[in-house]
Amino acid sequence: MQGDTTEPGLATGPHDHRRRQAAAGPATGGFADYGGATGRTDMVERLQRWTGWMGGPLWMPIILLVEFAFIASMAVDPRLTVLAVGGIAAAVLVVEQPLLGVALLLGARLLSTGATVFFRIGHMGIGPFEPALLLCLGALAFHGVFHRVRFWRAWPWRNAFLALGGFITLTILWSQSRSETIGEIIPLALVLANTLVILTFTRTWRDFRLLLLAWIGTCVLIALIATFTDNSAFLSSTQSFQAAAGGGRETGLGQQPNWYAMNLMFIIPTCFGMALVERNRLLKLALVGAGAFIFFSMLQSGSRGGAYATLIGGGLVALANRHFRKWFLRLMVASVVVGGLIVASNLSGAAALGRIASNGITLNQSYRQWNWEVCWQLFQDTHGLGIGAGGYTIVLPRYNYYLSQSLYDYPHGIFWEFLAHYGVIGLALLAWLIVAIVRMAADIVASTRGTVAEVVAWTMPAAMLGYFAWSFMEFTLTEKPFWEFLSLYTALYFVARRAQAGEIDPIPEWTLRPRLLGMGGETGQRPAS
User: Fold this and answer.
1) Which of 43, 240, 241, 269 is least enclosed, having the fewest CB within 10 Å?
2) What is the pLDDT of residues 334-378, one digit of tens each?
3) Is 333 exposed, middle or buried (0-12, 13-18, 19+ CB in 10 A)?
4) Distance between CA 162 and CA 155 in Å, rounded?
5) What are the CA-CA distances from residue 209 to residues 56, 140, 382, 488, 510 (Å)?
């Protein structure tokens, strides 16, 4: 017999009865008799599944040949063998536990900087993110082929993103540099790949929550590295940016200080939001401590934009949710007190905090204004079409030679980037994308009301809105980790829809603590927003 008892996606064959015998237990006389141990039974079951997926025992000679090749490679360089075996083991692990692969992908994305590049292929650096993405794409292909997992779906902002990517690709026809245009298209393809991986393997509230915890843990790790290591160890291609930072500012793995702040900024409101609804007291305290540590580490960058973006994000959530408001006010009071003590005591980081507290923009930062003037002139000279993807540094000397010889030869802001490169059409497509994201956020807030996901449904778009305000002063379209953060938030959209449809377990309700209500005993009432 074949078919009924076979797992979905597995091939049937003459050896299937052994799998059924193993599942039946030792009395069947099958593989489960070997050693009489449950662990060995599981191992044999897994071996049967893998050989079934690969076509059956006929593949075993090929596997033996591969093993022989590994042994032979040790004579050339044992490190190659170790890397190959480690890569295969990692691939098997990610296929078996794809959510672990997504967590690895997010962590690697946050850890990837110019200083963590392993090697370069042309202008493209290969760091921890690229291998993690390959592992996840392999798992995605595997589950798509053998388990018929659907990975192409209509997420709310998909059409706007594809239209924008298509137009950017089209600008290669009039771009100043086709090689730079390709360099702009590749990150968009990576964004699409990351989105597919995150949306496919994040299926339940538990999955989503674990990935948020992984994000928080990675940010804590980055902040620890930045706090307790010598920044000179990370000097690389970003050394010029560090020199331009003026001293006294934390960089975090060799990043430009503003980029370091931006990488940490996204998760801060969500970290405190998760602490608000967490019932486990130890985890609640850990989340509060992690959020405070990430926040103060971000302030060490001396980035005014990062501080303002965090205030915007936290302030919006505080206005929307009265319970989060208490946490936010406490954080602000603690920040002022601790920051004042640091500045008054002239401790490490005092210069960075003083920079944030200072008003206005110094004369040296007029580079931004000069770049914005160039972007406006490019928009006018191309009659609203834009110069196409890439090529800004090529045309910049004709408009401001002094600026072209500086470290600040880029538009300084996503709006200005679109104005110069993609013109009216690009700005219209960007507006479409923003509207689609806002509508999705409204849907998520409505569908998670009264659950533990409600606060997160507010904190994540609030952080992105803070980034949006900041992006008028800094950054480019494909900066990480905005797109990964957006994709993770989009996964919550599908989790909420599945929970409402009864396809998965419902998202737990949020029952308020007595101290929040000023009442004795717990209550099952849902919180008001």
Assistant:
1) 240
2) 666 665 555 455 455 544 545 555 544 443 457 889 999 999 999
3) exposed
4) 11
5) 38, 21, 47, 10, 15
